[in-house]
Amino acid sequence: MSGEALANLLNETRQFPPPAELAANANVTAEAYEEATADRLGFWARQAERLAWNTPWEQVLDWSNPPFAKWFVGGRLNVAYNCLDRHVEAGRGDKVAIHWEGEPGDTRTVTYADLHKLTCQAANALTDLGVGAGDRVAIYLPMVPEAAVAMLACARIGATHSVVFGGFSADSLSNRIQDASAKVVITADGGYRRGKPSALKPTVDEAVANCPSVEHVLVLRRTGEEVAWTAKDHWWHETVETASTEHTAQPFDAEHPLFILYTSGTTARPKGILHTTGGYLTQASYTTHAVFDLKPETDVYWCTADIGWVTGHSYIVYGPLANGATQVMYEGTPDTPHKGRFWEIVDRYRVSILYTAPTLIRTMMKWGDEIPAGYDLSSLRLLGSVGEPINPEAWMWYRQHVGRGELPIVDTWWQTETGAMMITPLPGVTATKPGSAMSPLPGVVADVVDDQGGSVPNGGGGYLVLRDPWPSMLRTIWGDDDRFIDTYWSRFGAGAGSGDEWIYFAGDGAKKDDDGHIWLLGRVDDVMLVSGHNISTTEVESALVSHPSVAEAAVVGATDPTTGQAIVAFAIPRGNADAEGEAGERLIADLRTHVAKTLGPIAKPRQIMLVPELPKTRSGKIMRRLLRDVAENRSLGDVTTLQDSSVMELISSGMQGGK
Ligand code: 6R9
User: Fold this and answer.
1) What is the DSSP letter of 497?
2) Which 8-state DSSP code applies to residue 314?
3) Which residues are annotated as a binding site for CoA?
């Protein structure tokens, strides 16, 4: 990264120590770092003891065949037993596992005993349908408790689940079912989105028509809308809810495949990321305990992600349930029926830990400060962020307007591939800096390297890598070991034919500040090369968002005859900003100057467009590739992963209208 561009985020000097009371009672203290440094594998072995094992492991890590890791070799356990039975057996069956709220306002309170019972029934029903250990089951459901039940029932009988986000098309669903040769699909008639029923079953019918591996389809009734029926279909209420509630969980090998999750595929063919049992649950459980400082007796936790993403897997289902947490699950969108819906939910359930995404925080900024101010958010004690780099101004807004100016924020960096959090503050230990994910967790070894794979000094930038295997790492890409090696291990180190060390390439740009803290700079594919300088999209975006009139920004490099690439920015004005007509022109001029002032003249955008929305993936990440197409006057590439396809029409037509 160029010196000029680095200046901005490195100039971010604000720092916030943990609240004294939290630090004094924190689940994890600074000693954890020392312990893990002294004996990394011993540290992870101690975290694995958080779980109930039927057979103890003989070896913590087998790395004799890199990059194929085996953790807790020889150990056996059942994931569903760890998430449900052991809490019920310990007398906590009446504790609320899920406060569920449907989008239309219907609610359910699901205790650990309820969840256990339903999961046993679903496990029996799946077994009756011929599903056994090692079979694959596709799950295509809205955000209802049965989504967690379906996953846990698979885990209980050793079937490998593949959850597909309910917004994906028949084609995407069909490809994923075929890639995994799923035997059963679990779906619903539909779910509620944006104030109306949104059907799922017709998409499944279309997808399954091309999937000979599928023998049965289990259909949950949620909306009550009419559905077409095929010979493969079974109603959930006639199959699961009539099954026996008795089921004894069998232990599986620590390396038994737990789930496949396809990465969103913004660029290439989706990759089926494979996670296994013991290591995955160990790290999901430990990070929930350590990073959220979760106190299962008193906290009410809410992760706003969808179960179709890895965040929903690790931090709605496996991590929180393994810890016996009480959590909120919400079915719908944040602005239905009004823009205060999220804060109303926090208020109603007295949520104490909130885990959400920068895209949502920036959306809330755009909607205006008065909306969260209208609710009682005093139950909150810890805030989390995941999914994209969080711009310092969005971080400050989150702390100020949601966190009363005093709550700690954990900005957690991780990926579908890493399975669980990797780089994040510890809330009782770390003095946080707005915009930085700070440090690798105890037991995790991350670094920033240059083109040659050499570790960069403090103050330098380059590529984020992970140096040692970690328990919840992906084990391979389903059915494609070569692609696994090629994608993640052949850029640096032994996999690239140099050195003995196997180095995992995360695909993200990053830098170390003068204290050695890590700042994420976005996907390396998005880095711009302007007149020979590498400039990160994240830094220019953060500079734009630091302007009081900008809520959200996306920046791309467009081919330019003189500079190689030129910076083209798309900015969403804040709710209160005057951005029409001449005022808009003035704002654009002002923004260009503002970026040049904060980052240096090299980073001044050639062009800035004021737009009402940005193209995002269904998990809320900005799709810069499409904006690059617009900026370079190309026809748009693949838009199937786009959340709202009308956004691109709006942006393209605005673009023709001038600067
Ligand atoms: C958990 C999840 C992974 C990619 C990752 C990075 C971006 C996630 C981030 C972050 C900066 C954070 N990312 N968390 N960037 N700071 N705290 O989102 O998984 O959907 O696989 O995406 O998301 O670019 O490489 P996944």
Assistant:
1) T
2) I
3) 193-196, 311, 531
Q: Decide if 619 is inside a domain.
A: yes
Q: b/e map of 369-387 (b: 16 or more CB within 10 Å)?
A: eebbeebebebbbbbbbbb
389 touches 361 (CB < 8 A): no
Mean pLDDT computed over 220-241 = 98
Structural Rg of the chain based on CA atoms: 24
**Span 141-174, pLDDT tens digits:** 999 999 999 999 999 999 999 999 998 889 889 9
**What's the pTM?**
0.93
For residue 480, the 8-state DSSP code is -
DSSP one-letter code for 387: S
**416 in contact with ligand 1, CB cutoff 6 A:** yes
State the CATH number of the domain containing residue 595.
Answer: 3.30.300.30
Compute the residue count for the chain: 659
CA distances from 637 to 167, 277, 524, 627, 633 (A): 19, 37, 19, 10, 12
Closest by CA position to 348, among listed 635, 39, 101, 598: 101
Q: What are the tokens at 530? A: 């302007």
Q: Give pLDDT tens digits for 593-622.
A: 999 998 888 999 999 999 989 998 888 899
Q: How far apart are CA 590 and CA 596, in angstroms?
A: 10
Judge whether 566 lies within some domain. yes
CA–CA separation, 1 vs 439, rounded Å? 20
Nearest to 239 by CA among 186, 162, 183: 186
| 505 Cβ contact partners less than 8 Å away, ≥ 6 residues apart | 463, 465, 488, 489, 490, 491, 492
Inside any domain, residue 611:
yes
Residues contributing to the annotated binding site: 193-196, 311, 387-389, 411-416, 508, 523, 531, 545, 547, 550
Distance, in Å, from the CA atom of 512 to the CA atom of 436, rounded to the nearest integer, reads: 10
Distance CA 45, CA 439 (A): 21
Which residues share a beta bridge with 557? Answer: 567
Structural domain boundaries, residue 612? 531-655
> Which of ligand 1's atoms lies nearest the C-alpha of 309?
20
Test site for ligand 1: of 356, 360, 386, 436, most ligand atoms within 8 A of the Cβ: 386
Tell which residue, 429, 264, 285, 402, has the closest CA to residue 343: 402
Query: How many structural domains are present in the chain?
Result: 1
Q: What is the ipTM of this complex?
A: 1.00
Distance, in Å, from the CA atom of 112 to the CA atom of 414, rounded to the nearest integer, reads 28
Q: Is the CB of 266 under 6 A from ligand 1?
A: no
d(CA 117, CA 124): 11
- Ligand 1 pocket, 239 CB below 6 A? no
Q: What is the DSSP letter of 392?
A: H
- Residue 646 domain-assigned? yes
- Please state the φ and ψ torsions of residue 389, each to the nearest 5 degrees: -60, 140
The order of strands in the sheet holding 409-411 is 107-111, 96-101, 326-330, 300-303, 353-356, 382-385, 409-411
Q: Is 213 in a helix, a strand, or coil?
A: coil
